[in-house]
Amino acid sequence: MEPRELAVLAAVERRRRLKPKIKDELVTLAHGAGGKATHALVEALFLAELGNPLLDPLTDAAVFRQNGASLAFTTDSYVVKPLFFPGGDIGELAVNGTVNDLAMAGARPLLLSAGFIVEEGFPIADLRKVAASMGRAAREADVVIAAGDTKVVERGKGDGVYVNTSGVGILERDVELSPESIRPGDRVLVSGSLGDHGMAIMIARGELELEVELESDTAPLHDLAAAILDSAPATHCLRDLTRGGLATALNELAMAAGASIVLDEAAIPLRPEVVGACEILGIDPLYVANEGKLTAVVPPEQAGAALEALRSHPLGSAAALVGEVTDDPDALVLLDTAFGGRRVVDMLVGDPLPRIC
Questions:
Q1: Cβ distance 127 to 161 under 8 Å?
Q2: Which one-letter DSSP state was computed for residue 105?
Q3: Using an 8 Å Cβ cutoff, are 136 and 92 in contact?
Q4: Nearest to 214 by CA among 150, 278, 144, 294
Q5: Domains in the chain, ordered, with CATH?
Q6: Which residues, 6 or more positions from 12, have their beta carbon under 8 angstroms from its beta carbon?
Q7: Spatial CA neighbour of 243 closest among 327, 150, 356, 116
Q8: Which residue from 135, 174, 333, 340 puts its CA 20 to 30 A from 155's CA?
Q9: How far is it, in rounded angstroms, from Cα 58 to Cα 20?
Q10: Would you write out the chain's pLDDT as a tens digit for each of its 357 residues?
């Protein structure tokens, strides 16, 4: 049996033992936040009904072989509010988000599809802005939007416009990126400051009287991921830090790997603006979404090379080594605080920041 098949079986067996259950009778916003409620919905409902060897690992993209080539495939939908925000808009976000899911599988993005659900009465000028933004983002990421679809729903039924993008990429390196590859002693890196996107969206909504200049970090990460894999070819896992932020992503990795992760709070890069806004809102920045940041889990002997590769790229200039994998089988994420204590960093519960991507 191939290593990838063994890893899939191991992940499936772990999920069977956990047996997630849906306790809610109705869908809530928490089911879309990327945290515990999302995992229960995905694993106890969708995976139970749709599960197969390609879907079961629940990674950012499915990897498969076709005519001798290794390909990656992914899809994502975007419902961000507001549609236009400092640093980007829903069109750019839809391209970059799907490009990044492919990049986390080690793939070079090739083709995207674009599906639009447009509300009756939505301004044509704004729809053109969204399409133009998607076109620019696709050209910058060197991908082609090769297929598309448009649906229009009644006034009041669509909140402006929703966008879905799917993508296909090709794996040009012989890599096996998966949480099951993570081992005790591995180092955990992040590519830059956390929480920029989520806080930029919250401030752009105008519901908070905060005078903070903060832009979304939305960006395509495939070149950054390639730089890591070229410099640290034994990299075990890549993950982009979207819904649920760093905390939720690392909890997912810890559970899949059957090991714990210890973070150094002092090493985690955060902008003062993000810290201040999070303090006012009572939100831990470790749970705030990013759209242009990734985490890499690499063997200790290649951590230095990976960090150097990140910092040499414009999108990784503020990269940092923030943690280490331990052999604790409880699969916890722990934070060594700046005050000298240690606390558990659990997976996101609830949805403190709805409609951010």
A1: yes
A2: T
A3: yes
A4: 278
A5: 61-172 (3.30.1330.10), 179-344 (3.90.650.10)
A6: 56
A7: 356
A8: 135
A9: 14
A10: 555 455 545 554 554 455 678 888 999 998 998 888 998 999 999 999 999 999 999 999 999 998 889 999 999 999 999 999 999 999 999 999 999 999 999 999 999 999 999 999 999 999 999 999 999 999 999 999 999 999 999 999 999 999 999 999 999 999 989 999 999 999 999 999 999 999 999 889 877 777 778 999 999 999 999 999 999 999 999 999 999 999 999 999 999 999 999 999 999 999 999 999 899 888 999 999 999 999 999 999 999 999 999 999 999 999 999 999 999 989 999 999 988 899 999 988 877 788 899
CA distance 35 to 296: 20
DSSP class of 64: E
- Residue-wise burial string across 49-84, b where 16 or more C-beta atoms lie within 10 A, e elsewhere: eeeeeeebbbbbbbbeeeeeebbbbbebbbbbeebe
Query: How many residues can be counted in the chain?
Result: 357
Scanning the structure block, which residue is given the tokens 């390909």? 71
**Residues paired with residue 88 on neighbouring β-strands, in sequence order:** 85
Residue 267, C-beta contacts closer than 8 angstroms, at least 6 positions apart:
320, 321, 322, 323
CB burial readout 95-130, b (16+ within 10 A) else e: bbbbbbbbbbbbbbbbbbbbbbbbbeebeeebbebb
User: Strands 333-336, 260-264: parallel, antiparallel or unpaired by DSSP?
Assistant: parallel
pTM for this entry? 0.92
